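Lab meeting, action items carried over

1. Structure of the two-component assembly. Owner: GW. Status: complete.
Input record:
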Amino acid sequence: MNATKYTQEHEWLRLEDDGSVTLGITDYAQEQLGDIVFVELPEVGSHLDGDSNLVVIESVKAVGEVKLAVGGTVLAINERLADAPELVNSAPLAEGWLLRVQLDDASLLERLMDGNAYQAYIAEL
Amino acid sequence: MSAPGQSLKETPLHTLHAELGARLVPFAGYSMPVQYAGGIKHEHLHTRQYAGLFDVSHMGQIRVRGALDALERLVPGDVAGLATGQQRYSLLTNEAGGIIDDLMITRFADHLHLVVNAAFKDSDFAHLSQGLGADVELTSLSQQALLALQGPAAGAVMARLCPAAAALAFMQGCTATLGGMAVLVHRCGYTGEDGFEIAVANHAAEDLARLLLAESEVEPCGLGARDSLRLEAGLCLSGADIDAGTTPVEAALGWAIARKYLREPRSAARFPGHARILDEVRHGAARVRVGLRMRGRIPVRAGAELLDGPGRVVGRVTSGGFGPSLDAPVAMGYVERALAPAGTALNVTIRDTRHEVEVVALPFVPHRYKKS
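Predicted assembly:
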């Protein structure tokens, strides 16, 4: 399995063997958002430009957005989140994954932090 | 909300909040706990089932001497008719009939005790001071903290610690001793549940909080749960659901207007904006505050415009969030009067997509006050 990469906006991305990327938010992000009550996911097959909202995550109090610097095509979404958005709180790196995308420019991954760099990054926040 | 660079005030429970793992946020110029480790949903549900302890020391407490009649020049409620120890919800109105703030008023033997909202306490004090005149003595009780114990177990907790308070009915207050500390207790709250608001000297506030938290039913709760609880209870947030451009009748707070002003002749009314407000009591207001339920699970937030079928703007959401007790999004807002009946279907646009929303009766969760 490929290493998981992290963005400064607290998303994680993992390159799968078929070249697609699975994406979610980090434990730090779910902790900051608090109790998640709704996850708005894009339609499978849709293409989203870089910097557009891939996912909107609503907690009791706050609204969080997931964006990527590059565009991509949505291959799959985590259907379980429609009825169980709290999975993003309880297992943000596993059952609480958000979606799988084919990135227009997969070199994005090379520019992201690895696990150690991300831990060092949030330690400074 | 505070300007950048402006230092935040702290309540006497600041150290305790940190010790309890609170997440602190700026609110009305104070650093306040929005939640503790358990999270908003847990705190909300715990309060509905047992009891939550909220630090509301940021609110303004004011003692007023010599103003029983004078205060009726500023509020539409009946103040002179209050019995000793009786508390009433009321409103400070402006000349246009709008709501400057909402407040609690209790009559005691030789003074009135007021509680006003944190965000407006300085302007309320100035407004009271100017409106009540020189014969009235106003004292800001800034040396007093305020704790709210809310939930169905609050009565049992107080029965153990402060029998005099446990004997109060809803909307009554008294002075008492709790754990050796002098307190001013009211049976009231902002959650729709039975509960108490306990004023205590700043220096004793942490001891009081620890004493209450030591009770098995009680957990600390933050402003996040306080907001979701009051929204489910259909209670207004001053500055959001009611403001200087909103009248009491529009806000569905007509019940807070003294009956004596509803009878003829109505010339007795002196409070600001009485002409418009009493006219609206009789003829209805153009728009009305209502409850709103989404058809799906997407929460609608304050500021969203409400649309009718053809897409005309017919109102606006003033409070919106998620109701943990209903496990569903809940909101309040204003709609044109013709669209106010429960069951009316409206639309709201959230991130460029239209969603269905239904007008429903308030409160979302029935009040469980201890009336007698």
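2. GW to write a short summary for the group page. Key points so far: The interface with chain B takes residues 34-35, 37-38, 40, 53, 56, 58-61, 63, 82, 85 of chain A (CB under 8 Å). Helices of chain A lie at 27-33, 87-90, 115-123.
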